[in-house]
Every structure is written in C-alpha cells, then in structure tokens.
Design brief:
Number of domains: 5
InterPro entries: AB_hydrolase_fold, ACP-like_sf, MFS, MFS_trans_sf, PP-bd_ACP, Ppantetheine_attach_site, Thioesterase
Keywords: Cell membrane, Membrane, Phosphopantetheine, Phosphoprotein, Transmembrane, Transmembrane helix
Oligomer: single chain
Radius of gyration: 31 Å
Subcellular location: Cell membrane
Protein name: MFS transporter
Shape: globular
Helix content: 55-70%
Largest sheet: 8 strands, mixed
CATH architecture of the largest domain: Up-down Bundle
CATH class of the largest domain: Mainly Alpha
Strand content: 5-15%
Main location: membrane
Length: 823
Amino acid sequence: MLNLPAVGIDDDFFDLGGHSLLATQVVARIRKVNDGGRPVGVMDLFTHRTIRDLAAFMASADTGQRRLLYELTKPGRAAALTYVCVPYGGGSAIVYQPLADALPDDHALFSVAIPGHDVGLDEAALPFDELTTRIADEIRERVTGPLALYGHCGVGSAITAEVARKLEAADRAIEAVYIGAMFPFARPKGPFAAARTKVEKLRSNRHYASWLKSMGVDTDEIDPEQADRIISNMRADSRAAEDYFTDLLDRRAEKLRAPVISIVGSQDPVTDYYAERYAEWQFLSDTLGLVVLDEAGHFFLKYRADELAEIVSRTHPAIAAEDTAELSDRGEDAPWDLRDWQRVGTREASTVRPSMGRFLAVALGQLIATTGAALTAFALPIWLYTRTGSVTDLGLLWALALLCGVIMLPIAGGVIDRVDRRRVMLAASTASGAVQLTLAGLLWTESIQLWHIYILVSLSQVAASFQRLAFQSAVPQLVPKRYLGHAMGIAQLSSGFALLLMPILAAGLLAQIGLRGIVLIDVAGYVLAIATLLLVRFPDLLGWRPREPLATAILNGLRYSWRHRGFRLMLGYFALGNVFLAPALVLTTPLVLAFGDIADVATVALAEAVGALTGGLAMAVWGGPRKRRMIGVLCFNLGTAAGCLAIGVHPSVVAVGAGVFLMAMSMALAQGVYSTIVQVKVPQRFHGRVFAINQTLSWSTLPIGFALLAPLATAAFEPMLAPGGALADTVGSVIGTGEGRGIGFAYVVFGVLLAVVTAGGWAVRTLRRFDTEVPDSLPDDLVGAQERANRLARHRSVTMTDLSPEDDAAGQGRDTESEVVVR
C-alpha cells in the first residue's frame, strides 16, 4: 500500500505516508485475517501507529464501550481553544487530521468517531438522539476551557447543531459553531415529495461513488464491499440529517447563544446561493457569519486545511468584537474572506417570502401550459402528415423546431440572467399563447398554409426556450432553498408523468375534437399560466444563475474537450451517430399510419415513453458499469441500433412498439453512462461546459437527418418496396411490400448504419479504452487551486504591464510581486 521496500516494526504508519483511505484499507485487510481477535478500527490504527503498538493492542483484552472523541493534536498541550469536529456522512474521524496539523500550537482538536462508520468494526449505528447525547456528555467530561464546534456537510452539520443545543442546555459555553459546506436542508410535506424520496432511495451506490469522485473523494482504491458500506452509511446519514432539520424547523426550537458561521467554497454546487442561504441559520442562532474560500470545492477541509485553520481561529473572535474589517477586505489575492455577518434584525426582511405554496402554484400553471404545448406538439405532426403525406414537410418541421429552440438558448440565457424572471415567463407565455391562438384562428377559418405552420412552430420554440429556462431559473427564487432539491425533483417528476400520459391523451383528443380543439386547450393552458404569474408575486431573492453564460460555456467546453484526443473522438462519434438516429425519430408517425391509425401512433409513443422511463430507472438502480464505461455506451448504442432494426422488420403495433421501447431504453441507458463518464473524467466545476458542448455538437447533426436523410430514404425506398418494385422479391419477402414498407426498410438501413458507426467506434482503441486512456479528474479543490493560481498570475501580469517606468524604478529593491498585488 505504501509502496516501500521495507517497513520496520517501530515505523510510524502516518509518517511513512499513510492517510485516511490507506488506513481504511489496512483495517479492512486486518479484519479479513483477524478471525476471532480483537477488532481494529481506523482510529485504533491512528492511536497505535507502529506494528509493535498495534500488535500489542490486538493482543490486549477488549475494554468495552469505545469512546467517541479522539484527540488529533498532540495530547497534553495547554489549549487556549479546543475544537470538536464531526465528519461528513460515511467519513472517519481521521479526516480532520490535516486541520489538526494546521492549527496554532495553543489549539487542540478532537474528532468524533461515529459508530457504524469504521469499516474495521462491527458496530451498530446509534439513533441520532443517543449519538448526540453521548457526544455532548463526553465533551463535558473531557474538554475544559473555551470550546468551538465544527461540522462538515449534511450529517456533520446536523450532529454539530444538536450537540451544540444539548451543551448549551447544560450550561456549557460555546465560542462558535462552524458549519462547513452545507446549509440546512429539509423535506417538504405532500405526496409528490414522498414519491420523490422513494425514487431517490432506488438510486444505486455507484451513482454516489461517481458523484463523490467528481467532488474529490475516490472510493475506487477501497475494497468494493467496504466502499459500498461507506456510501450506504453516507446515504443513511444524509436521510437522518434531513429528518433532523425537518423536525427542528417545524417545531422552531430555542436558538443557540453561540454564533453560527458558515464556511463554503465558492465553486461548491452544494452551497450555491450562499450569499443569501447562510441567513437560513437564523432559526438556530441570532448571530451569523459567512466565510467564502476562493475557488474551493466541497472537500476543502482536506485540500485547504491551512486556510480553514486560519478561518476557525480568527473569525468568531472578530465577530464577537464586531471588528471584521480585516477579514472582510483582504485583497484580491486573499484565499478567503469574511463575506458577510449579521445579527437578526439588522436587515430589513423581504415582504415576499419563498414558500412551497408559491412554488406549487407557479409550477402547476407551468405544468398545465407545457402539457397543452406537448399535446399540440404531438398532434400537429400527425395532422400535417395526414394532410400532405410528405415526409419532407414533416422533416423540415422537426428540423425548424430543433434549430430555433437550440439557437435561441444562449440568447435566452443571457436575457434571463439580466431581466426579472417573472416578466420573462409572462412575456414567453403570452407570446406562446398568441402563437397558438393564431394557429387556432387559421385552423378554424381553414386558411392555414404550410408556411404558416413553419413560422408559427419556429416562434413557438423560441418562446418555449425562454419560458423553460426562466422557470428553471426561478425555482430557487420561489421555494425555500432548504427544499430546493425536492422542488427540482417534484418538477421533474410531474413533467415525467405528463410526458408518459400525453400520447394516449393526445390521441383521444385528436380523434374527438381534432387539432383545432387541441390548440384551443393549449391556448387555455397558457391563459391559466399567465393568470397564475399575474397573481403570484416573486420573492426578491436570488434565482438560479449559471457560473458562466451558455455561449461562454460552449466555447470553454470546446477548448476543454478538444485538448484530448479521446474527447474529440467521443464528440465526433456522437455527432456522426445522430445523423442516422435522427430519421428514426421522425419517421415513426408515417410508418405507423401506413398500417394503423392515430390510436396506434399513440400506443407506440407510449411505448417509447415507457422505454425511456425504464432506462432511467434501471440506470438509477444499477448505477452503470464500474469500469469500461465507454464500452457500456457502445453496447447500449448497439441496443439502439437493434431497436431501429426491430421497428422496420414487421408492420405491426407490437413490433414497432417493441422496437421503440428498446431504442428509447437503450438511449436512456447510454446517456446515463455517458453522464457518469463526465462525472468521473471531468472536474465538477467543468461539467456544465462539457455537457453544453456535447449537446451542441451532437444536436448540430440532427437536422441533417430530419430534413435530408429521412425524405431521401423514403423517396428512394418506398418505390423499391412497392409490389413489383426492385426489392420486392428480396427484401420485401422478409419485411413485406406495400405502403410504408420503404419506411420500414429505411429503419433497417439506419439501424445497420448505427451499428456500423458503433462498430467503428469500437475499433478505435482510444475511444474503446476511454476509461484507461483518459485519466480520472483531479479532485475539484486541486483544480480550484490551479484556477486560482492562473487567475492571480494573469492579474499580476496585467498589473505589471500597467506600471510606468517611474513606478518600476521606484520598486527596485522591494518585493515587486507583493507591491503588484497591492496595486
């Protein structure tokens, strides 16, 4: 493990380079061979660091209940301040060793070993109340003098908050409560929230392992069984923390006397909106502080321990003395700053507060409007094809809808970042309603022309881009941010159910009231959405803001991805595959209408929706392959090709439905595995830009398939598969002849071409071995350190360029770099 030629019996494990992950591996191996002996945990290895001491410990008798607090600083020092620190979910007490090493000599640090977290011990997890009571009792017994608490992430923050409450209830004074990388989070009430929680529990531990790796914690070095246990503990801890905060917020418990100080990384997605979210701790304390670590990610306690030590030793004395100027204005090169602090009542409260009721009202209006739009989007292509019988017209409609929607996204993002989101949603809903009302008028007067449809669909997609992005951005503004994850899940869940039921509903409505009636329903949905937006006031708080504009993200994503041949090949592979996938998406309606009716089209669309849902759920439960993920993408793309083949071989609802189910399921699985690849191979802060460039490049080829290949294939193959056609006696003897069989053959051809493209990708070693050819990403905090160093270097270079010759001469003999930074 240590990669050393030899280790002496009295060599210190940690002095030789051992760390928390290696310690976990050591105790896991000891557990396998130590049958019947005294169990050894990670903190036992920390306490007994040599082979001699550890052997003596294992040979000694078990002394019963283990303590919970372990001192990580040198014992016996006279402590001017003692910290008690609680690790994050699934974490060992030893994760605080870097912080302990960085503290001033007159500070002591105890870390909490949470029962059930140590992979070397068969300990049962304690109920939350019993655990916090034991920690508080041990602190009162063992820690004297000034005391500060620190908790990191979800479970660390919850345990720390409750321990602080119990200590103050026992009249034990606390200097400060520091909470790292987390704000209070809770579970809203209602059936949608309960359903979302149940769905979340289905997620595989592999999903969380990939997420942890993107954030800076790699569990691949640990035995898979032990890694699974650690992640299971983390998930259980997170649920317990959510239950605790939910209960604490509901009963409005008595506040702490100690200040609560939030420490966040500026690039940590878990603590987005920190400028306002830190104030949510007002339910726990009347004195709050916010400290921001420049370019830090989620696990800064490991990678930024020196700055963290400075923060926890300097911030609360400055707040207590109301002398925060030095911490708040530390200059551009400062690695951290006290961004804000307040006492309750020093700021005027907003008159309009976020609430789940406010969010649900707006979300319901948007859901009804988007459902109406989806009904029209389903019915209009069917209506158009039954009127014109032209695949060219249908393909152009799909191409225009895609192009207008995608091209408008960067513009919409820029506008939404600068304009009130409620106004954008009102304008977009009004524009969409006007477009649909115009379409209804043209249909009712029977004066509609093909060019009318193209223009109206294009305008509708432009408005939809603004509406969709504005609503997504407004969700954090409408809902209390402690419920943000659930609110996003509720919106996705409701949209998913609408998508699932829409084909059957649209087919029934199209048969009963026709396209004119459906468009009027669409108009009524927008009227309701507009009325809701007029009645509901939006809080004057932060909504979602991207870290960079969408156009900038696309350009940066291109720069990032183009640096490595593997990423270039992957982007090219997806773009080429989508050329042949696009016709398969547009030709389903003509194919089914050749032998069936509108109800059959709806049945096939429902099979497609169920396939996509099945693939998404399977990916959530399974989590994707642990290794060789790109091979997984290639295999699922072969499944997509097989689905195309199945669609074309037989003119029946069962065959086509089975084919679209397989195709949609395979696409969802491939997309899920690809997302995992990005998580593992790309630092977390760059995920958005890489996804943006992939979507832009891969979607850029879809219009070729929609508007060119689909019409050409239909025009070429339909005559060949007609009775007496060129392929009637060969291919026709297998897949049949007559109307629609040329489209069926087109599916076979495009399925074969997709398989050929995938086989070509398989043949390219760099693409096939993507997991080994492309290294895993660096921990996000290390990437942040590099980003910060590069930014400061650019700043210094610019500043030095601005120096006049007189300035430069005056600077001789001084620390020029320091002078430049000050300037």
